[in-house]
Amino acid sequence: MTQRVALVTGAMGGLGTAICQELAKAGHKVVAAYHPQFDNKDAWLQEMAEAGFNDFVCVSGDISSLEDCQTMVANAEAAVGQIDVLVNNAGITRDRMFAKMEKDGWDAVIATNLTSLFNMTKQVSAKMSERGWGRIINISSVNGLKGQAGQTNYSAAKAGVIGFTKALAAELATKGVTVNAICPGYVATKMVMAIKPEVLQSIIDGVPMKRLARPEEIGGACVYLASDIAGFMTGSTMNICGGLYYQ
Ligand code: CAA
């Protein structure tokens, strides 16, 4: 069988790295999309090579820009062919209590975590439909389901990701293209480690499993959703949060 191509946004972050690695282990050709301001690309590639991942293709752009997304996907297609699997993973936080939140912190999170799904998915969904096969995997969050104090922007964007997922899943259901969301809980990444230690400890205390997720536990779910065997699953939200929230 021809090797499938998976493009992962936010590929060089904690979660993105694990998603790239798990998809590569499962036999995908991986395109790692990263923000132009990320200046550790070479070090990341070196680290990946040392871990045995030698053939990641990199494309760079700001996912909150439609033009950048057009260019990134065009560059990826020129390098490795059509995108079969899109993982909309990139995301940011600008945590503040709502009383203190400024408009720029709201706008940045909505643009990067939600509008990016329009920008990226637009580049691939019609072509996937024409070919009769595709997988769109959107990384939402447990906080898009339950709401989190200090994250009105992030919770709103991640809830929006779920709505987008369900609506597009319905549109593409007869086209061989599935659209699913994953709602990770708190994962052991830099983003989560940036929370004040005492706040983070109280969050972990509230997780029934009393630990953070390992990034590969989310990467593994992407592998499943990207596979043929997941072909009957669409419009779903997979909660991977150690029991923190049940829908
Ligand atoms: N619920 C309700 N009120 C809360 C609260 C909570 N969970 N946590 C704090 N507060 C209240 C405090 O009691 C305090 O109230 P008073 O002023 O009346 O005493 C007030 O909020 C403190 O507000 P400040 O703005 O002064 O707080 P701060 O600046 O020290 O911290 C914060 C604000 C940065 C948002 C901090 O609370 C925080 O980091 N919270 C955690 C946010 C979080 O979970 N982020 C997840 C990041 S990881 C991620 O997003 C990945 C993913 O998908 C899970």
From TrEMBL:
Q: Where is the Ketoreductase domain?
A: 4-185
User: What Gene3D superfamilies would the database entry show?
Assistant: NAD(P)-binding Rossmann-like Domain
CDD domains named among the record's database cross-references: BKR_SDR_c
One Gene Ontology cellular component? cytoplasm
Look up the record and give one Gene Ontology term from the biological process aspect.
Answer: monocarboxylic acid metabolic process
Pfam families, alphabetized: adh_short (PF00106)
- Which branch of life, at top level? Bacteria
Which keywords annotate this record?
Oxidoreductase
User: What one GO molecular function would you report for this record?
Assistant: acetoacetyl-CoA reductase activity
* Segment forming the signal sequence: none
- What family is reported? Belongs to the short-chain dehydrogenases/reductases (SDR) family.
Q: What is this protein called?
A: Beta-ketoacyl-ACP reductase
